[in-house]
Amino acid sequence: MSRSMPSPADAGRLALDLLARWWRASCQTARLAIGIPDYDVYAAHVRRNHPDREPMTRDEFFRERMDARYGKGRSRCC
């Protein structure tokens, strides 16, 4: 049994889908590398794994992440 070649339109859509997935993964990796948390990943996780909980708002999420990273109300030297 031989496989048929995808049409040029199907091949183009597949290429664009792969490029879009690569771009999203690259952006997420870059954000994590420089310490910027990803709200969309957090919100999807909460909705999927904790349906009884409401995710924090974007502002609450970033405030909580910055407090966790730098400490809330304290000075940090190193």
Entry keywords:
Sel_put; YbdD/YjiX family protein
Structure explained in plain terms:
The structure is a single chain. It is built from three helices and no strands. It is an all-alpha fold and 78 residues long.
Uncertain regions spanning at least 5 consecutive residues: none
Radius of gyration (CA) equals: 20 Å
**Total of DSSP H or I helical runs spanning 4+ residues:** 3
Oligomer: single chain
Q: How much of the polypeptide forms β-strand, as a percent range?
A: under 5%
Global shape: elongated
SSE series? HHH
Helix-residue proportion = 55-70%
Distance between the termini: 64 Å
Largest sheet: none
Q: From the helix content, strand content and strand pairing, which structural class follows? A: mainly alpha
| Tally of DSSP β-strands | 0
Organism: Lysobacter panacisoli
Protein name: YbdD/YjiX family protein
Pfam families: Sel_put (PF04328)
InterPro entries: Sel_put
Summarize, please:
With 78 residues, this protein is mainly alpha-helical. Helices cover 65% and strands 0% of the residues.
Give the topology, please.
Elements: H1 8-34, H2 39-49, H3 58-70
InterPro entries: Sel_put (IPR007423)
Pfam families: Sel_put (PF04328)
Protein name: YbdD/YjiX family protein
